[in-house]
Amino acid sequence: MSVARSIDPDQIGFDPARLARIDEHFGRYVDDGRLAGWQIVVTRRGEVAHSSTYGLRDVEAGAPVEQDTIWRIYSMTKPITSVAAMMLWEEGRFELNDPISRWLPEFADVRVYDKGSALKAYTVPAIEPIRIWHLLTHTSGLTYGFAQTSVVDALYRAAGYDLGVPPGLDLAGATVGMAKLPLMFQPGSGWNYGVSTDVLGRLVEVVSGQSLEDFFTERILTPLGMTDTRFWVDEPNVKRLAALYTPHPATGQAVRVDKIGAFALTRPECFSGGGGLVSTAADYHRFTQLLLRGGELDGVRLLAPRTVRYMTRNHLPGGGDLASFEPEGFAETVLDGIGFGLGFAVVEDPVPARVPSSVGEYYWGGLASTAFWVDPAEEVTALLFTQLMPSSTYPLRSQLRQLVYSALVD
Fold first, then answer.
1. What distances in angstroms separate CA 348 from CA 134, 321, 341, 360, 366, one per listed residue?
2. Ranges for the Beta-lactamase-related domain (predicted)?
3. Of 340, 325, 332, 212, whose CA–CA distance to 267 is shortest?
4. What residue ranges do the domains of the chain occupy?
5. Are 138 and 78 in contact (CB under 8 A)?
6. CB neighbours (10 Å) of residue 253?
């Protein structure tokens, strides 16, 4: 399945010559060796205005990026997990204020880091339970071990929670281990990017009675026709998978990292709702169109329009932006002027970030520099796929926004 241009761009407000700047600009990243290759899709009002590929999905094999190339989407898994949770919420299976310990009793007596070092950390009891909305908004106090910015991060790494979970653990076992580690702050009092969405995925399993893999397949991916989106790449499709790269510390040239990239080739023991999926541009395009259309696509409705609108409002305490919470670790977003909803970053004010966008636009990205956004005001969606880790290496996302919005001329 491909995402081919479906209409003349000028019919939906885009200047074709200005859209051509996208390929010219991002082509330079490939030509000078910083990226292996990429795929970009831009739509408006449900019509594809721009769809392009450039470079190689596998430099060493000389294999080009093609329409059906499979990409590791890492944290772009999180919005799908959030949709899964809200589908259960729409069924009345829980309320957003419910403590997660009702379904995950291991979180009944969590503790919060207070002071000390990773060798001797002092903790205090949580005065507020972790609630479901805390998981959806990353205000739970959970973190990522790979962030390497705090004592709690170090405790995660010492327990085996770095880029993944300790070997031999399924999602249930991994979640039990996470609950034994201290929180970075009292639930609801801060914002920190972490394993909240993995725990949310476990909640989906317990509430639904299905594995996260089965829930995704039966309730989301199959109904939407997202046939290439799954937790690993099976043998017949291995050649379609893009290789994973990282910048050489001295030259900036993309260097292959098979040790990490190979994880996508085997069925995982732990289904990571926070970062486990692979997908294609055509598949994720369908997911963004579902969101843009208020939870329905081609006769398949997963969410009600009001639920999507509610999810994509800023739910941060006090209505602040991410910068006001002074998060310590890594995040797939700038912080100034950006709020956070139930699974998505949300633009509150585009001016502080110095990047054109619309108030109410929502988005997220993945560790290997993939990204998407949905702009309800302009009825625009955009997708960027490449495989360079970490995503903070180059300002690909802000540059794509510059080029897309400067091509919108109606």
1. 20, 8, 11, 6, 21
2. 22-397
3. 212
4. 9-77+211-406, 83-208
5. no
6. 12
Tell me which fold the domain 83-208 belongs to.
Answer: Beta-lactamase (3.40.710)
Buried b (16+ CB within 10 A) or exposed e, 283-320: bbbbbbbbbbebbebeeeebbeeebbebbbbbbbeeee
Average pLDDT along the chain? 96
Q: Are domains 9-77+211-406 and 83-208 of this chain identical in fold?
A: yes
pLDDT in the model for residue 183: 97
* pLDDT per position as a tens digit, 210-255: 999 999 999 999 999 999 999 999 999 999 999 999 999 999 999 9
> Are 129 and 187 within 8 A, CB to CB?
yes
pTM above 0.85, yes or no: yes
Residue 75's pLDDT band, with cuts at 50, 70 and 90, is very high
Helices first, then strands: H and E counts in the chain: 12, 16
